[in-house]
Amino acid sequence: MDKGIESIFKPYLEPKEVYKGGKNIPSDAKKKIYKLSSNENPIGASPKAIAALKACADKVDIYPDQTDIRLREALVQDFEGKLQVDQFLCGNSGSEIIDMILRAFVNEGDEVIYSNPCFLPYSVFSRWYGAKQVDIRLKDPDYSLDLNGILDAITSRTKVIFLTSPNNPTGTYIPKAILEKFLNKVPKNMVIVFDEVYRHFADAPDYVTALPYVLEGHNVIGINSFSKTYGLAGLRIGYCYTTQKIAAYIRQIHKPFLLPLTSIEAGIGALRDKEFVEETVKTVQQGRIFLAKAFEELGITFWPSQGNFFIIDPPLPEFEFTDFLMQEGIMVRPVSQFGAPGKVRITVGVPEANQALVEALKKIKA
Predict the structure, then answer these.
(1) What is the pLDDT of residue 22?
(2) Which residues sit opposite 191 in a β-bridge?
(3) Residue 185: Cβ within 10 Å count
């Protein structure tokens, strides 16, 4: 008997949580709106990236590079030659890199470990491939990594473990000693995905990226994005680096002509724009100091951040709080969907935006 098309639907693709990005500024806004909701670059986009983008505008009628080799060559230079060109893999955003990794390593019934509050695609994308999702939550009250909890959760079906530093949405990071302790204990037959898209903003003395552990040969993949530091969120460029063996394996599912010409050229231009990176990092780090001081003075609970954002415990219920700030011309983001119920994430902006936020908060606390 014909059971209908539903009979061949994958059961783990039944409608559930769906990742939704932050909202854009309303097109009919009648006043100045400061968008502090999507962790975008506060000063805009890399000028060298924009120039490279414009220079190729009259070439969009032809196919782009068949592979990502030119962008990978630029990344080798950006990493000062510490990695080889075949250790990089590029894609349309860091999110697509996450998807490629899961496609490459996860089969139905395998296990993926992550730690809420965290970036929602870890769980959403894992479900696409029928993975069992194992959530070992960050520890209260400081959102630190539950190292022993993750180690205890590992089974023979564990294939991928997601670690994030600095972590979205909490802004917390994994200290070097903790990460090394973890890597020394984790079994060698699984992949550690180290999401470091906010790495440029970290200034903690014991902050570390995936780089030294990739160089040592650990099964670690460092994920990065051009959306934050370089201000190219609209072009959707991401990349990862790992061991040559893992990169070669994942590359088997890398589609030809994957990256648009515009993204390739803008990405290469952005990597050459060291001055813009320095200005961005300075703006964010100074803004973090300003906002942390303001939160303390206003009695608003917040968590120290190594990213370009803060997570706070708002003085009003989360949606009442975000609605009020929107009326004041400031967009911020509730992060219940990220596993932090009742909390709100606020992006660090330029001084004018940060000051406007503080003035709005003063009205609430008055």
Answers:
(1) 59
(2) 160
(3) 12
